Amino acid sequence: MNLNNLKNALEQIIFELNANGKHESANFFQTRYDQIINFGDKIPFEVVESLSTCRAMSQYANFSLREEKLLDDVVNYALDIKKITP
Known about the structure:
Layout: H1 2-19, H2 23-39, H3 45-52, H4 57-60, H5 65-84
């Protein structure tokens, strides 16, 4: 399921960013992760939209290659969810 993939990708990027001291960026993803958990299958469009359009964050926050790969996963899973959301 796409939602589970997105949650797993968020868990991974949150862990990686926190481990590398990028707490502000990690908090961005943690907030959206918490919203997904709270809303379950009825995620607000704004949450998915913010995750599908945050790729530029990697430039501003000086992401490593691994962090960029994890961000790509988050963005791609969010885009998948947008495609199937009415």
